[in-house]
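Aim 2 progress update. The chain analyzed this quarter is reproduced below.
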Amino acid sequence: MQGTIDGFSYGLVTPVVAFLMACLGGALGLRCTTRSMLITRSWRAGWLALGSAAIGSGIWTMHFIAMMGFSVEETPIHYDRPTTFASLGVAIVMVGVGIFIVGYRGATGTALFTGGTLTGLGVASMHYLGMAGMRLNGKLEYNTLTVAASVVIAVVAAITALWAAGQVRGFLWSVGASLVMGLAVSGMHYTGMAALSVHLHHTSGTPAGDSATTLLAPMMIGPLVFLCLAGAVVLFDPLMVMGKPDRAPVERRPGIPAHSSGPRPGHRPPRHPGHDRAHRSVRTPQSR
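Predicted structure tokens:
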């Protein structure tokens, strides 16, 4: 017997809020990635780690906010606590690997493809591991082609978002990248949910695990607080907001040394060779 699935129990509230959370996490994470490209390598790892945690927390929070509106009419839905926590860790780690590749290798070529693919796979892995943590009186079944489509959506959009973040062209580019990331996570989620069907068991007992209200609501407080703190870091960093270094890079041209053209204190400019010869040819009366 097939269960009756409703993915929008609260109407548009859960998908809209979930999309906004995905955009927030994407905006913070991608902005940290852009920031890491404007500084020396000694500080780059810290910004990339913050960005990875922001994106991972954003997509995890988005997923379970959307799942608050998911229901199966014939059975209650509970969640396994360890698996739910593991999905957050997988999201941060896999997204982090992709972000670090792009942060250190640049948002071009093989590095962008590899990092974006890993980031997209991190989004998909988080989703399906989170779904594996569901406990209900039935069995989850998926349509293979639709699942593959959801993974492709996540990977392509993640590559696009990381490319836009790597352009380092200002705040509007990061806003666009965050919208792409939000669409990637939301599109991947609801495409994956469209692939789902529930085959009910012939039992009516209460499934193991915790209900959504007792588990998910308290668990989401931590990631939400973290996203707020990360947002404060972004807002109070002027270099982060401007999206460009606070001083223009030195122009490098052939034959011109990489230093300012103005005279330095204590530096004596070289004289023309003709002037030196003319000076030596003039003999003062005292020298004769």
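Residues 41-68 form the longest helix (28 residues). Residues 241-267, 284-288 have pLDDT under 50 and may be disordered. These observations will guide the mutagenesis experiments scheduled for the next reporting period.
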